[in-house]
TrEMBL record, chains A, B:
Taxonomic path: Eukaryota, Fungi, Dikarya, Ascomycota, Saccharomycotina
Residues the record marks as site: Important for catalytic activity: H229
The species this protein was found in: Geotrichum candidum (Oospora lactis)
Keyword field: Hydrolase, Manganese, Metal-binding, Metalloprotease, Protease
Keyword Protease appears in the UniProt entry: yes
Record's cofactor remark: Binds 2 manganese ions per subunit.
InterPro entries recorded: ArgE/DapE_CS, CNDP/DUG1, Cyt/Met_Dipeptidase, Peptidase_M20, Peptidase_M20_dimer
Cofactor(s) this protein requires: Mn(2+)
Protein name: Similar to Saccharomyces cerevisiae YFR044C DUG1 Cys-Gly metallo-di-peptidase
Membership in a protein family: Belongs to the peptidase M20A family.
Domain (Peptidase M20 dimerisation): residue spans on this chain: 210-367
C-alpha cells in the first residue's frame, strides 16, 4: 500500500464522516435487543438492514443463515446470521470479519440522558445503544467498502462477513454454523478479525491477544429437610451455612491466592518476551482505582495488576443460594445452601483436570470438617481461555495500521473475561484470530449512555481499512 | 384442696367438655390476625369477645387498655390489652395470668385441610388457627372460671388477667403497659403464669423454666463502589465476599463450637442438680431427627443435645445480603456484602460484654486478613435470656397439678428460642414466672393445620385449675 493510496483512503473516510454517522444512526434506530423475545422482529429487521447495505455496497453471496427455533422456547425463531463476501480472488488471502448486530436492552428510565435508540452527537461522541457494541465497529466495515468503492480502490484481501444477532444472548447457533460452514462458506479463511472489545483506557489503541476462560462451580450442602429456627436448633444440628463458610475460606486467600493445590502448577511460565509486553502499557493504578471506585486493588504496580487480570488464574466467590439474603434479621438455619464460585483459567490449565482437582479438594476439605451434612461439588459451566501469538502476521498488520492511524505503537492487551466465540473461530476454522477494538474503555458497552467517540469511529474505520491492506503485504507465518 | 374438691372440679370440667369446645370454636371463628392491618378490626372484635366472656363469668375491673397508634403506621390503632380481675381478697395471693388473643396469618391455600377459621374436630383433636396458640390456653382459664362458678367453688387465689392482641407481631405496647401498671393494676402480683409454649414431645407434660436470649449481628464489608465482573477484576481486587467467608469460618466450628474467645467463660457452670433435670426427659434422638428430617444432629445422646439446645450458647450463620443468591451462574464480584449471624445467649452471659467481645474479635480477625476493604461489625438487635428456679413455689404447685392430672412428674424443659415477654414480667413486676404449656410439641403453632388435642385442652383446663389451688397451699419462697 503506497502512502498515496493510504492517504487517499484516509481523506475519503474523512470526507464521508457525516455519511458514516448517518449510517450508524440508521442502525442504532433499530432496537435489535436479542434478550427480549418481543424485540425479536427488530433483530430480524436489523439483519435485513445489513443485507440491504451489503447489497448496495457490492457484496456478493449474501445469505441469511437461519438457525431454527431458540432452545427452551415454543416457537421463537433465532435471528439469522448474515454472511456475505466482498471479493473472491483465489490469489488473495481470505479474511473473516466477525461482528454482531444485536444489542443489550436499554430503556430511557434506566438512566439514559437521551433516548437510547436515537443516535445523539454530543462533545464529539455518539450516544446510543449499540454505538460501540457492536454496531459501530460492524458499520466501520461497511464504511470501508463505501470508501473503496468511491475511490475505485481495490481491497487486496477477500472479505468473508459473519454478522450474528444473538451475541448478547449467548451466541446461540453461532458455533453450530461455524462447524457447518467450515468446509463450505468459511472454507479457506486465513485469519479472523473481531472488533468487539475495547481499549484498555481512553487514550491508547490496543490489540488484544488473549482472554481468560471460566470454570464455574457450585458447592451444595444439604442438612435438615427444611429451614430451622436457630433458637430451637442452634448448637444442635450441623448447619450447612457454617460448613459452606469453612469451605469457602479454604478456596482462596483474602489477597487472591488460590489455595487449591495443583492449579498454579498448570499455569504456563511467564517468558521474558511476554513479560516485556507489560512494560509500557498505558495504564495507571489511580485510573483503575477510579474505575473501581475504591482503593482496594491487591497489587501495588501496573504490571502485577494486569498480569493478575489477564494471565494468571483467579478465584471469585459469587454468593450463596438458599441462605437468608434480605435486609433485616431472620433467625433461620438454612436447610440447603448452594455456594457459587468460579475460576478464571489461563494457559496451560486443562479444564477437565481443573474440575477433577477442584472437586476432589472440596470433597477432601469437607471430609475434614466432620459434618454430617451432605456435600455435592460440581461444575456448572466452563469456557476455555484463548491466547494468540501477538507477533503473528495478523497482529503485525494491525500494529502497522495502528501506528499509521494513531501515530503510536499499540499496547498489547488481554481480557480478563471470556469471549467464547474467539475460541470457536480459532479451533473450528484452525486459523488465527485477532481482537482489534475500535471503542474506548469508558464506552459503557452494557451500561447506560453507551457511546462511541467520533474520533474512534472515524479513525477506527481507517485502522480497520488499512489493516486489510497491511494484511495483504504481511507474509503468513509458518 | 381436698381430694373431693378436686374430683368435683375435674368431673365438672369433663361434663362441660362440649361447652368448652363450643367456646373455643367461637374464638377461632374470629380471624384475629395481628400481622395484617386489614384484619385489625377482627383483632379488636376478639378483645370484645373476651370482655363479654369475662363479664358473663363474673370477672371484675374489666378494662380495654388502649395502646395508641402502631409505630410506623399512619393511623393504625394497636389492639387493646384486656385486663380483668377474678377475686380481690387481700388475704389471697395474686396470680397474673398472661395469654394472647391474636393469631398467626392463615389461608386455606397455604395447605390447610379445612378452613383455618372454623374449628374442626377430627381424631380427638381440634383443628383451627389459634387452637393451641394461644386461644386454647386462654380459654382454659375461662373454662376454669365457669367450672368454679357452676360448682360455687372458691378459687383460692386472686386472678389478674392480661390478654394481649399483638403477641404474634412483637408484643407492641405490652412492655410499656406492664411498666405503667406495675404499681397500679398489676400491683402486688405474686407470680405470673404464661401458657404459650408446648410440650417437648407429644406424650409427656412439661414445665418450662428458661429460654435463651439472642444477640443478632451483622458484618458489613465494603470494597468497590459497584459490583464488578469477575473476569475483569478477579485476582485484581480484594473481594468482600472472600473476606466475609474467612470471617465466618473464624466464628464457629462445623461441630458448633463457638470460636470467639471469652464467651464460654461467661457461661454458668452446670451444677449436678441442674444436670439431673436432664436425666430422664422423655425425648429421643430418633424422634428429634424425625423432626429435622435428617440425621445431622451433632450430639450422640439426648442430654448433650438438649443441653446444647437450652443451656449453652450457640452461633448460627444466617446468610449474606448483597451477594448473588439466585439460581444459575452469575460472574459477579459483589461490591458490598452484609453477613448475618446470631448468638443464642444463656446465663451468665452479659449482653453488652458479649457485643464488645464479638465486635472486637471480628475487627481483630479482619485486620489479620490484610484486606483493603472496609469492615463494620455491629449488633442488630438483642433480647436477654430468662431462667427461673424450677423448684420454687410456683413450679412446685404446677408439678403437683401435673402429677394429679396426668399421673406423672413433669419434665423440666427450657426453650432454645426467646420469649421476651417472660423477661418483661419477671423484671418489671419483680416476680417469678412459670411457663406452663397446654399443647403438644406437634401442634403446628405457626404452621398449617394447627391443632390442639382434646385431651390436652380438657386435661389442660384441669391442670391450670388445680395449679391455682396448689398455689394457694404452697408457701412462697423467701
Amino acid at each position: 500500500m503506497s502512502d498515496e493510496t493510504i492517504n487517499n483512503f484516509f481523506s475519503k473516510v474523512d470526507s464521508l464522516k457525516s455519511n458514516f454517522i448517518t449510517r450508524l444512526a440508521e442502525a442504532v434506530a433499530i432496537p435489535s435487543v436479542s434478550a427480549d423475545a418481543e424485540h425479536r422482529p427488530e433483530v430480524v429487521k436489523m439483519a435485513h438492514w445489513l443485507v440491504k447495505e451489503l447489497t448496495d455496497l457490492g457484496a456478493t453471496d449474501i445469505e441469511l443463515k437461519e438457525l431454527g427455533i431458540q432452545e427452551d422456547t415454543k416457537d421463537l425463531q433465532l435471528p439469522p446470521i448474515v454472511v456475505a463476501r466482498y471479493g473472491n480472488d483465489p490469489a488473495k488471502k481470505n479474511i473473516l470479519i466477525y461482528g454482531h448486530y444485536d444489542v443489550q436492552p436499554a430503556q430511557l428510565e434506566d438512566g439514559w440522558n437521551t433516548d437510547p435508540f436515537t443516535l445523539v452527537e454530543k462533545d464529539d461522541a455518539l450516544y446510543g445503544r449499540g454505538a460501540t457494541d457492536d454496531k459501530g465497529p460492524v458499520i466501520c466495515w461497511l464504511n470501508i467498502l463505501q470508501a473503496h468503492n468511491e475511490l475505485k480502490l481495490d481491497i487486496p484481501v477477500n472479505l468473508v462477513f459473519c454478522f450474528e444477532g444473538m451475541e448478547e444472548s449467548g451466541s446461540l447457533g453461532l458455533e453450530g454454523l461455524i462447524e457447518k460452514e467450515k468446509d463450505a462458506y468459511f472454507k479457506g479463511v486465513d485469519a479472523v478479525c473481531i472488533s468487539d472489545n475495547y481499549w484498555l483506557g481512553t487514550k491508547h489503541p490496543v490489540l488484544t491477544y488473549g482472554v481468560r476462560g471460566c470454570n464455574y462451580y457450585s458447592i451444595t450442602i444439604e442438612g435438615p429437610a427444611a429451614d430451622l429456627h436457630s433458637g430451637l436448633f442452634g448448637g444442635v444440628v450441623h448447619e450447612p451455612m457454617i460448613d459452606l463458610s469453612h469451605l469457602f475460606a479454604k478456596l482462596v486467600s483474602p489477597s487472591g491466592e488460590i489455595l487449591i493445590p495443583g492449579i498454579q502448577e498448570m499455569v504456563a511460565t511467564l517468558t521474558p518476551e511476554e513479560d516485556a509486553l507489560y512494560d509500557n502499557i498505558n495504564f495507571d493504578l489511580e485510573g483503575f482505582e477510579g474505575n473501581i471506585g475504591s482503593k482496594t486493588i491487591i497489587h501495588d504496580n501496573v504490571k502485577s495488576a494486569l498480569q493478575a487480570r489477564w494471565r494468571y488464574p483467579s478465584l471469585s466467590i459469587h454468593g450463596v443460594e438458599g441462605a437468608f439474603y434480605s435486609p433485616g434479621a431472620k433467625t433461620v438455619i438454612p436447610a440447603k445452601v448452594i455456594g457459587k464460585f468460579s475460576i478464571r483459567t489461563v494457559p496451560d490449565i486443562e479444564s477437565a483436570k481443573l474440575d477433577q482437582i477442584v472437586i476432589k479438594y472440596i470433597e477432601e476439605e469437607f471430609a475434614k470438617l466432620g459434618s454430617k451434612n451432605k456435600l455435592k461439588a460440581e461444575l456448572i459451566h466452563d469456557g476455555n481461555y484463548w491466547v494468540s501469538n501477538p507477533h503473528n502476521w495478523s497482529f503485525r498488520a494491525a500494529a502497522r495500521a495502528t501506528k499509521k492511524v494513531w501515530g503510536v505503537d499499540p499496547d498489547y492487551t488481554r481480557e480478563g473475561g471470556s469471549i467464547p466465540i474467539t475460541l470457536s473461530f480459532q479451533d473450528i476454522l484452525k486459523t488465527s484470530v485477532i481482537l482489534l477494538p475500535v471503542g474506548r474503555g469508558d464506552d459503557g458497552a452494557h451500561s447506560t449512555n453507551e457511546k462511541i467517540n467520533v474520533p474512534n469511529y472515524i479513525e477506527g474505520t481507517k485502522t480497520l481499512g488499512s489493516y486489510l491492506h497491511y494484511l495483504a503485504e504481511e507474509e503468513k507465518d509458518a
